[in-house]
Amino acid sequence: MNCGDVVYRSTLDPKLRLEEARRRAIPWLHASAHASSPAQPPLITQGGFALLLLVLGYLSATPGAGAGFLDYYVLAPLAKVRQPKYSLDDFEFQQKLGEGGFGDVWRALNKRTGKAAVIKCARAYGDVEAWMNERATRACPGKTAAFLGSFSDARQPVLPSGGAAAEGKRLPFGAFALPDMPDWSELAAGRLPWGQRCVWVIVHARASRAWLSEHARPLPQTRRS
Questions:
Q1: CB-based contact 141:151 (threshold 8 Å)
Q2: Which of 72, 102, 117, 201 is deepest in the core (most CB within 10 A)?
Q3: Residues 103-119: what's their mean pLDDT?
Q4: Distance between CA atoms of 135 and 17, rounded to whole angstroms?
Q5: Residue 95 pairs with which residues in a beta bridge?
Q6: Is the peptide bond before 63 cis (omega within 30 degrees of 0)?
């Protein structure tokens, strides 16, 4: 109760009684009060409500400051705790798929699960790539190759018949789960679900068109002196 509400309520200025502010406030956000008692000050004014909507819109808008805060401080630490720890000895390297300026890619067998995996040995930006793969796995589950984890080792990957692994500089490794890929016999026999058949047909049709368009280009002429 404000000063003067009982005796001098009819003579006080409305601004001193805060009645004008109450009229401008949002009615359904008022604090609960008894019918016989005067109205209480509002919990939030129109300006505060608009500011709250603005902050919520900023946090939820792309690129998602609120989602990034939640992922960095809550989801990422929880994923680190739950993620199994791997080393180079947990994989049996079977084939070298490719190499480039940023690292080498190997096909390997995960000894823990018995399933195929892809291992990338990064010679540059390994920590950044590991963070990006972890973030993509959490943000798009089931849409990308499952990132098993990252580790570092001074040994270089070798095939089972390649002898002992050579020691060198410690390099970061990233392990991915290789999804089961159906062969063409299953696709031709119609044993795949309808959705997978459509995806495979579209993907291979686009790959075939790209291959044909590349081979249709004439090779550049070279002149020998």
A1: no
A2: 117
A3: 90
A4: 55
A5: 107
A6: yes
Query: For the domain 86-177, what is the CATH code?
Result: 3.30.200.20
Query: 186-208 pLDDT, tens per residue?
Result: 666 666 677 667 777 787 788 88
Start and end residues for every CATH 3.30.200.20 domain found in the chain? 86-177
**Beta strands, E only, the chain:** 91-99, 103-110, 116-122, 147-155, 167-177
User: For the whole model, what pTM was predicted?
Assistant: 0.54
Q: Residue 209: pLDDT above 50?
A: yes
Summarised one tens digit per residue, pLDDT across range 142-160 is 777 788 888 888 887 777 6
Q: Taking the CA of residue 87 as centre, how many other CA atoms within 13 Å lie in the half-sphere pointing to its CB?
A: 4
Cα distances from 71 to residues 102, 134, 165, in angstroms, run 27, 11, 38
β-strand 147-155 against 116-122: which pairing, if any? Answer: unpaired
Tokens encoding 93 = 């390297």
Residues 6+ apart with CB under 8 A from 22: 30, 39, 41, 42
